[in-house]
Amino acid sequence: MKKIMLVAVLAAFSLTSLFAQKYENLALTPPMGWNSWNKFACNIDENIIKGVADAMVESGLRDAGYVYLNLDDCWHGERDSLGFIQADPVKFPSGIKALADYVHSKGLKIGIYSDAGRKTCGGRPGSFGHEYQDALQYAKWGIDYLKYDWCESEDINPVGAYNLMRDALRAAGRPVLFSMCEWGTSKPWEWAAETGHMWRTTGDIFNCFDCIDQHPGWAAYGVMQILDMQNGLRKYAGPGHWNDPDMLEVGNGQTVNQDRAHFSMWCMLAAPLILGNDIRNMSQETKDIILNKEVIALDQDSLGIQGLKFAAEDGLEFWFKPLVNDDWAFCILNRTTEPKEYTIDWQKFNLYDDVARRFTDFDSKVYNVRNLWTRQEEGNTKKMKSVTIPGHDVVLYRLSMNKKKK
User: Fold this and answer.
1) Residue pair 88/75 in contact by the 8 Å Cβ criterion
2) Residue pLDDT, tens place only, 143-169
3) Domain ranges, residue 222
4) Among 80, 106, 115, 331, which residue has the fewest nearby CB atoms (within 10 Å)?
5) Active site includes 327?
6) Which of 134, 149, 259, 278 is catalytic?
């Protein structure tokens, strides 16, 4: 009898899916939160997750906007006799519903992980053939965010697979932010704006500033390699549908300069800011980076326009990001290991952004210049400005409208 009822429910949901769409009014700015994978990989349990929830509140991360606490791979147990996924009873003896209640009690939202294939990347049960059941289970547990991976997906069509899970989430009736982790293989930026709220544009990041971790048949990429892969994608991003260059490695052992550059560039990209460090034990330097509200404000700017690389010269890159109130973010990235001296001639940066449909107009407008890492006002754009950019670091400014030249 239970199996007959299950078939009837799934059939009804299948009819609903004919008219399904992703949940609107989610991710109007890039999502912010924390994910377990970069630090813990498969070694997660409910005590770790509760400790992270506590730390997100106590450290000020929640109040700074980091509200999603996301379990990645390896939380899974087996499916029950009807095919519904269960949590690993050893790692999560209280169950996911109790864990979600705890996370919600802290004023946070909880995310979970699955895979469009037959198994997850960690070898746990995937959602293939169980999409509607899994969506029902997530709704029952109170899940707010789903990261949906792409392992064990041979002969599966990505457009169909991701639309199917989108429809299942919608039919289950609980608003869930849908994070597509298809690695950019099928160019999701070209088709997924109506499917997910964010989509991975690359393979996995790993904890290196400028290198590639090559494996048989696949590779993981450093921060600079992933930054380069974002070229040409900015026109596809915006409120409710974001390019995702993968999670942050800030606080996982790179230098402070590298962490600051990494965080700055993800904010210039209007990327989801999903932390991947052990936030229960952070240095003050790491806190100062990820809690810098003025830098976060660039990422969370309500225009939702991704930054552009305007020029490159002698190991330096010059990036602009249009902001509300006719402001701009201006970032100089030093990709070399040595400090660089540079004189900013603002007149060299008169540009037109065809996504924002806006000119910088340095020849006719004067902007106040605020350094977002030193938190100091540094004059305006009337005069040229000499700066030193440390190796593997940035200088990052907010340019705010002052007045027209007379």
Assistant:
1) yes
2) 999 999 999 999 999 999 999 999 999
3) 2-299
4) 80
5) no
6) 149
